[in-house]
Amino acid sequence: MQDIYAGMMADLLKNAPEIKTFYFKTNDAGSGNCWSDWLYTGPNGPDHCKNETTGQRIEHLLNAFQAGAAKAGRKLDVYLSHSQGNSNFSDSERVDIQNHLPENCYFASTPENSFISVGNNFWVTYPVKGILDVYSFLNGLERFDKQKPQTVFLNFNAGYNRGDESIAVVNQMFKMMDNAFGNTSKDQPFEEKLHSYCIDLVGEKYAGSLVEAFEKLNDANKFRNRNLGNLSGVYWNVSNRMMTRPLVAAPQRLTPEEEAYFLPHVFNVSEQEARMDYLDINGGRWTTSRDSVLKYLELLKPVYSALEKIGEGSDNEFIKSLNIALRIHASMYRSIGNFTAAQQIRDKNAEKLNCPIHRPDKESTWTGDEDLLKFNEIMRDELDNTAQLTGLLEENGTNELCLAKDAAHEDCFLLGPDIIGQLKMKYKIMINHWRDIEDYMTTPFK
Fold it and tell me: Does the first or last residue of the chain, that is N or C, have fewer Cβ atoms within 10 Å of its Cβ?
């Protein structure tokens, strides 16, 4: 295996000799490195390296990369991602890896070899691109140390490498980096930097309004980070398909034909759990608060409303795209809130909803089942949300989404190219199954 890695590196550098730095991550559970603490199967591997430490085994891997570089006659700096989630090693293993690094190989940033990563908040907004978080990016630039050498990694892609940030956002980020290294930026207050950036973007007339919009977006982001920190779009909306799957009271009543466009792409080892539990994400039970989601949406509303006015007045295409992207993002979070509340009602009434179809008793009621009324309210909101999102995407909104190039490349972490057709399918299925709940729970004055 080490020979294979060395050969791959040699071929890479022979074909792309301009490469000077190689950055990689091992991903979940040490990605199969022998005898690692967090392997899914438990620590295991071949006998010959059983008594080596994780640091020593990673040292062999890094040496293989360097051997490949030497074979190609190149010098190479190799970085193994240290961040939790990219390289899942235990704390003790991380210390051991740091203590066994070969020459020109790096793991954790140190005062002697300092490096930082700068990028947009694409992990949260995916599959929506085009949302520039100006505040966090400008604050991230403050971590640059101009007094000493520092390696900076710029990240413009989403988790699992299924999509890239829009070129328009990347260009704006490079502009801000250029300004950060200007002669006056060192002592310039943050507010002045922000205002100067907004003038460059939309002109003096609209700069104040844009500053205010970015400030409100920052407030919304801070609320989201405090209260909705586990709501990454890649899992809830994409790998669990909340964006495109129908929200219904009895998912077991969907036909195979109705499930065919979304269920195979739900990331779950159990088809039944993928079908029946909207909150089974990656095989675990995740949840959130619909009230908190609604609060977040209220905080976003004045942001994209302001951007709409600025875009119309300044005729700025970047601002127009940012407005559309934020509206799509809000729609996706609205789905998260609706599916969460719907599943909580389904959990509460599991005995009723999972038993055979039955009619209510003969006793009249003016109120009916309270949870039926709540579910209908949620279902109606998701239906409206789907219709509004469809309309938004039909007005060139698909440009703000990461989509597969064709149906064959759609997968758990990448939406299909016919996103509008799937949303229309979702709408149709919800209408067709609208009254399924009445076969299990009682309507007012049945």
Answer: N
CB of 127 within 8 A of CB of 331? no
- End-to-end alpha carbon distance in the chain: 68
Across the strands, what pairs with 116?
Answer: 152
Q: What is the DSSP letter of 65?
A: H
**Mean pLDDT per segment of 10 residues, for the chain of length 446 residues?**
95 97 81 82 89 94 97 95 80 94 94 83 89 86 76 83 90 86 65 90 95 96 93 92 97 98 96 97 92 97 96 92 96 97 97 88 84 97 98 93 96 96 98 96 83
pTM over 0.85: yes
Task: Tell me if 100 sits within 8 A of 53, measured CB to CB.
Answer: yes
What are residue 105's DSSP bridge partners? 78
- Select from 79, 74, 44, 48 the least CA-distant residue to 61: 79
Q: Using an 8 Å Cβ cutoff, are 133 and 221 in contact?
A: yes
Q: How far apart are CA 210 and CA 199, in angstroms?
A: 9
3-class SS at 443? coil
Q: Residue 284 belongs to what H/E stretch?
A: strand 284-285
How far apart (Å, rounded) are the C-alpha atoms in residues 303 and 82?
35
Measure the CA–CA gap between 362 and 446, rounded to whole angstroms.
9
Residue 156 near residue 170, CB atoms below 8 Å:
yes
DSSP state of 182: S
Beta bridge partners of 77: 21
Residue 24's beta-bridge partner residues? 80
CA 432 – CA 223 distance, rounded (Å): 37
d(CA 111, CA 95): 16
C-alpha angle 428-429-431 in degrees, rounded to nearest 5: 65
Q: Is there a contact between 446 and 369 (Cβ–Cβ < 8 Å)?
A: no
